[in-house]
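Proteins fold reproducibly. Look at a sample protein:
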Amino acid sequence: VIFLMNRFSSLAAELRGIPRLTAESARETRSVRSLTGTSMLMALSVLLNQFTIFISALIRVSFTFLPIAAAGMLFGPVLTGLAGAAIDILKYFTRNDGSAFFPGFTISEFMRGFLYGLILYRKPVTLGRTAAAHLSVMVVVTFLLNPLWLSMMYGQAFVALVGMRVIKNLFLFPIEVAMLYALLKATATIRARALV
């Protein structure tokens, strides 16, 4: 019971800190260092998009989330959300799979960056926090927003689209969390050395 009370009070403290965290992240947009770092991670994300594996027209495996999550940890939700939206537009021009541009996916990518930044910015890197960040992105973006946009575009049933994604993501979740955790740990180590 005491453990649950401590976890609940910790969660409540983090929720109360969201406005302050968002304001601090907004200040990152004025930093040349932050803009440069975000730009390099955006370029890496666009490059990784070239290696996307298409399972079907509606299901794909991609590792573009890795630089976005690293940007979220380093620069916060505001700058990373904006970077996610810009990455979506850049990915459309660099590797268009023949589909029309749809702004809903730009909103999805903004949310992906914003959620990673919200959960990882100025927080210690732990396996639990990494899994929570990836799970929140998976639920909001992969299971809710993207199927909504696809059902609007192609007229397919929302539930069917979610079902296909659940199977793929249940398999990939532990692999992606392990990769993300290793990347964030390495990024935190490099950042700590640079600040010394």
